[in-house]
Design goal:
Layout lengths: L4 E5 L5 E2 L8 E2 L3 H13 L4 E4 L8 H9 L6 E7 L5 H14 L5 E5 L4 H6 L6 H20 L6 E2 L4 E2 L15 E4 L3 H10 L2 E5 L3 H16 L8 E10 L3 H11 L15 H10 L1 H12 L5 E3 L2 E2 L12 E4 L1 H14 L3 E5 L3 H12 L16
Parallel strand pairs: 1-4, 1-15, 4-5, 5-6, 6-9, 9-10, 10-11, 11-14, 11-15
Antiparallel strand pairs: 2-3, 7-8, 12-13, 13-14
Helix pairs in contact: 1-12, 3-5, 5-6, 6-7, 7-11
């Protein structure tokens, strides 16, 4: 399969060389971000995921800053439903899309914890956040397409505006969405350019893709929707070294004491209540046994200490490329990746693994349809 795209992750909540050891944390700083952005921009990655939670630097401001300092990579900006009026979101993203020459992707986020959103002053349940997300995307699409006031009347928003500018990418910048709930999958089937799965077995992903295509068919999008994987990467020249690096990354870990959340152990229970995608990742962790493997080169260990996408591909460059190809065979065309520490891992992937996909890489971002 050709037209593959690879993205990387900007760790705006900080980086680490051992996720269980606070002394090995690499603090947030412009210097850290600059090194990661440079590695990703020069390394052949097409997009750079800007995360959001209470410990992250603000995603849209960070994205705009680094979009002006890069030449190749597109920010993938996490947009949380209910946090920004959709008319303003539409104008912000269209403006950034124009100013960057069409280097923009949008990641639709409902949030994995009700407690976190309530702490931010957003009282909506996850169900309501997904309802708002659906309306927000509808409004943005209509504002970007219309030269007349749109007359939108929804349950949560009423918008009767016309905006400028329109996006440079047509019909609009690509939307990414990752989520395992019924609501998430339906909204993704309706709107997503790329539905992102968190790590799982390739055979399971193949079945999930069949299900998502059936859902998308209801909206005339069975062939339009694309699929991707959100994965961690632990790469080394030998398999033994790769596994040593993986185990060193969680040395001394206490299960579900999350390094990427400022609420620590309490955060895991809050996330477990409301995030079906996280429930699946942690189910895989529990099922994976003492070696924490769900596949010869898919490892659940990072999920002990990280909320979200914790499944890692571990091995040599050849083994990692072969494992990613199993997901390509399942139907995936995009890979949103990360690794610790992020700049070093990005350089290693771009020099050792990405060349193995030569001739199969897309020249452009996934195109919305």
């Amino acid at each position: 399969m050709t037209d593959l795209t690879f993205g990387w992750f900007l760790p705006t909540s900080g980086d680490s060389t051992c996720l269980a050891d606070p002394d090995q944390t690499i603090a947030q700083s412009p210097e850290l971000f600059e090194e990661v952005v440079k590695a990703a921009d020069e390394g052949g990655f097409k997009y750079l995921l800007m995360p959001v939670n209470a410990t992250c630097w603000e995603a849209t401001v960070t994205a705009a800053f680094y979009a002006a300092r890069t030449k190749n990579i597109a920010p993938l900006i996490a947009l949380r439903s209910g946090y920004c009026n959709p008319s303003l979101s539409a104008k912000m993203y269209a403006t950034l899309d124009q100013l960057t020459g069409g280097r923009l992707c949008i990641n639709l986020i409902a949030g994995i914890s009700d407690d976190d959103t309530k702490a931010d002053g957003i009282p909506d349940s996850k169900q309501v956040r997904y309802e708002k997300m659906d309306e927000e995307v509808q409004i943005m699409k209509r504002l970007w397409a219309s030269d007349e006031p749109i007359g939108y009347e929804g349950q949560h928003y009423q918008v009767n505006q016309v905006i400028m500018p329109k996006p440079l990418q047509q019909p609009h910048p690509p939307f990414f969405l990752g989520g395992g709930s019924e609501q998430a999958m339906e909204i993704s089937a309706k709107h997503s350019t790329v539905h992102l799965f968190w790590g799982d077995k390739p055979a399971v992903i193949a079945e999930k893709i069949k299900d998502m295509r059936q859902r998308a068919a209801k909206y005339g999008r069975e062939d339009a929707i694309q699929f991707g994987m959100r994965l961690q990467i632990v790469c080394a020249d030998t398999e033994e070294e790769a596994w040593d690096n993986a185990h060193r990354l969680i040395a001394g870990a206490t299960k579900f004491k999350l390094y990427n959340d400022n609420k620590g152990q309490n955060a895991a229970e809050s996330i477990r209540k409301t995030s079906e995608a996280n429930q699946r990742v942690w189910q895989l962790l529990e099922e994976s046994g003492d070696d924490m493997k769900i596949h010869p080169h898919l490892w659940t260990g990072i999920s002990m200490v990280r909320a979200g996408a914790g499944i890692a591909v571990v091995g040599t460059p050849d083994q990692i490329a072969a494992t990613l190809d199993e997901f390509v065979e399942a139907g995936c065309t995009s890979f949103c990746l990360s690794g610790f520490p992020h700049a070093k891992a990005a350089r290693l992937f771009s020099t050792k693994v990405l060349p193995k996909f030569k001739g199969r890489l897309s020249d452009s971002l996934p195109k919305a349809a």
